[in-house]
Structure formats: structure tokens, C-alpha cells
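Saturday, quiet lab. Running sequence design on the C-alpha cells for the scaffold JK sent over.
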């Protein structure tokens, strides 16, 4: 690990500015983001929020997340990370690792969006500058989780509530976002 590589808890090792990278996620109160390869809820308002945050952007996701979606998201550049070297899907660009996908996304998008799943969020967290996080006010069982956030690294910039949904925008401390 180099001296200026991010730490595992998402904090930068030095004060070097990170290039913009957004995580877009929804989680339950107990951090669940998925169960058996599916979203454990259906929240139309959150789906609209997700669409508004991602249309016109490059979206980076793992192959399992793509499989849940079943097709490329329209009006977005779809970049898929997979360990399966022969995997393809029409309308998608395929990458073996997160760094390659982010580099490709940045050729057309100043602030690409990471949209899941759990492994990809965990890998991307140390590189992220902003998190658009919907917290669904329920506890559910699941097998995929959003990573823990360090309060020393992330501060809430905005919060909007709607029923049992909390739409939060978090920014990395010290990035000037």
C-alpha cells in the first residue's frame, strides 16, 4: 500500500484530494442491501430517487447486481465488474476490477456512480467522495450489507425524510465537496 492510498475504513492516508466518485445505495436500519440476490423491499420513491441520481452518469456495478437488474439501465453507461472473463451482455462494458472500471467511467463522467453490490461498495468506499444513501426504516434479514461508515470520515450534508425513508447525502470530510 502506498503512503497516500486510502485506509480500510474509508479514510485517506494523506490530504491529497480524491477525484469525485459517488456511491448510491439503499439500506435497511441493520445495513442490509440484499437478500438472496434481490432487494428485500420495493420502494417506488427510492427507485425514482435512484433514477434521478444516476441518469446521464456512468454506473459501475458488480455482475450479481446486474443480474438482479436483468438488463442495462437506460440512459446510463453501464460498467460491470466480474471475475468471469468470458461474461458479456449487450449494452454493457465489462471489467475485471474496480480500478479499471472507474478509470474507464471517468473518460466520460466526472463523477461516476457506484451502485452495488456489497463487495463493490466495500472496495469503492475508500475512494468515494460522496454517498447518496437511502435508509429504509425497517430491519430485515439479508446476506448483503452496506459497509460501516466512520463518523470521522463522513459528515451528513443533507437529509430529507419521507415516511419511513431517509434520503441522506454524506460527504467525505476534507474533500471540499
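Result came back. Writing it out in full:
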Amino acid at each position: 500500500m502506498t503512503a497516500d492510498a486510502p485506509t480500510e475504513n474509508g479514510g485517506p492516508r494523506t490530504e491529497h484530494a480524491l477525484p469525485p466518485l459517488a456511491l448510491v445505495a439503499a439500506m435497511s436500519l441493520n445495513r442490509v442491501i440484499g437478500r438472496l440476490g434481490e432487494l428485500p423491499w420495493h420502494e417506488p420513491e427510492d427507485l425514482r430517487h435512484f433514477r434521478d441520481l444516476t441518469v446521464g452518469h456512468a454506473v459501475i456495478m458488480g455482475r450479481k447486481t446486474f443480474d438482479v437488474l436483468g438488463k442495462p439501465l437506460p440512459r446510463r453507461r453501464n460498467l460491470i465488474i466480474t471475475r468471469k472473463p468470458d461474461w458479456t451482455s449487450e449494452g454493457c462494458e465489462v471489467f475485471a476490477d474496480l480500478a479499471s472500471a472507474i478509470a474507464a467511467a471517468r473518460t466520460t463522467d466526472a463523477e461516476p456512480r457506484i451502485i452495488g453490490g456489497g463487495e463493490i461498495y466495500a472496495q469503492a468506499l475508500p475512494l468515494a467522495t460522496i454517498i447518496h444513501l437511502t435508509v429504509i426504516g425497517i430491519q430485515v434479514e439479508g446476506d448483503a450489507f452496506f459497509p460501516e461508515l466512520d463518523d470521522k470520515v463522513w459528515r451528513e450534508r443533507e437529509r430529507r425524510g419521507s415516511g419511513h425513508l431517509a434520503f441522506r447525502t454524506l460527504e467525505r470530510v476534507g474533500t471540499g465537496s
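Notes for JK: The chain has four helices and ten strands. The mean pLDDT is 92. Ask whether to fix the surface positions before the next round.
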